[in-house]
Amino acid sequence: MAGIFVAGETLVDFVPDSGETLREVDSYAHRPGGAPANVAVGLARLGSPPAFWTRLGDDAFGDFLAETLAAAEIPETHVERVEGKTTLAVVSPPGEGGPRFSFYGDRDATFGFDPDAVPTEALTGNDGAASPGGASAPPWVHLGGVALTHLRGRAATRELRSAATAAGCPVSFDVNYRSDLVPPETAEAASTAVRETVAESGVVLCSDEDAAAAGLSTSEGGELARDLLALGPHTVVVTLGRDGALAVSTDDAPWGATTVRHDGFPAEAVDATGAGDAFTAGLLSRLAGSAESESGADAEALREAVAFGNATAALSVRSVGGMGSIPSREEVEALLAERE
Fold it and tell me: Which residues on neighbouring strands pair with residue 11, listed in sequence order?
């Protein structure tokens, strides 16, 4: 099948131990994170190793992340080492109000992608890192919303998105908006960039919380999906946390016009950090595969992809940390077989 190309940030999550509030937390554990990085590693564990364009600082945390990506068999081809401190994302204890993540460090190093360094050669289908097995079809390109909070990240994402469209690559976009990363004076520009990326992507993933934060819609569920479809994508997947996911597509989608609602799977949650990224990895691994299969994509392919994403997310919450808890393809398939 065609490869998958993921672009976006890799950072370090600091996850609290037991305790509802900061006063009750005795320690934090550092874990590799960043939504696109979680998706990239998740795809590798699910049998669809992608190419990954990301930036790592030149500090010890950058070394830690480079080692983590290498251990996950992510090709180094588009992993950039740059001057600066790695961004740290401190996860709030469950009882604290305010943002779930607070960010520290040099944001330029992590989010400041160079618009002049977009690896367009990876979009031709001739880049071995982006096309496992020597596939010649253009890769599926997946983008994350956090890079759009940074001036250069916005410009680079726009360049990559345009190049992907010109190369005939399917494009997916996880809104994943973090308003606390956006200075007030650039909030309108960041929101506009999110809206443009939604409009020019084929598949869009979004929660109602992210949609509201980005100024896209204050609706929920099916109404949110319809609001986002009106902007231009052919498929919108609304993530619903422990309640599963809803996917709505138009006639322009490879799988046709359909609506899929999957309630998810019961799970004993230890830590939900990165569960949405696990869902995204599971969904994309199936959508990219169905689009390139001999039988082609259809409504059943979308239903199977949503179920596979939900199973991946349910298994991912069993341990602490987003990236390290993503299951293997065999584990996901076993859960699906058990539920069937």
Answer: 33
